[in-house]
Amino acid sequence: MTTLQQAIEATTRAHDKAFIPYIMAGDGGLDTIKQQILFLQQHGATAIEVGIPFSDPVADGPTIQAAGLRALEEGANLRTILAEIASFKDEVHIPLVVMTYLNPIIRYGIEAFVDAAEAANIKGLIIPDMPLEEADLVTDALAGKDIALVQLISLTSPAARIEKLAAAAQGFIYAVTVNGITGTRDGFDEALHDHLRALKRIATIPVLAGFGISTREHVEAMNRSVDGVIVGSAIVKAFHEQRLDDIEVLLKAPANQ
Amino acid sequence: MTTTEKKGRYGKFGGQFVPETLMTALEELEQAFETAKQDPAFYEELNYYLKDYVGRDNPLYFAKRLTEKVGGAKIYLKREDLNHTGAHKINNALAQALLAMRMGKKKIVAETGAGQHGVATATVCALFDLECIVFMGKEDVRRQALNVFRMELLGATVVSVDQGSGTLKDACNEALRYWVSNVEDTHYILGSALGPHPFPAIVRDFQRVIGDETRAQILEKEQRLPDAVVACVGGGSNAIGMFTPFVDDADVKLYGVEAAGKGIQSGEHAAAFADLKEGVLHGAYMYLLQDDEGFIQEAYSISAGLDYPAVGPEHCFLHDSGRVTYDSVDDDQALEGLQLLSRTEGIIPALESSHAIYYAANLAKTMAKDEILVICLSGRGDKDVQTVQQALEGK
Question: Do B238 and B176 share a domain, yes or no?
Answer without folding.
Answer: no
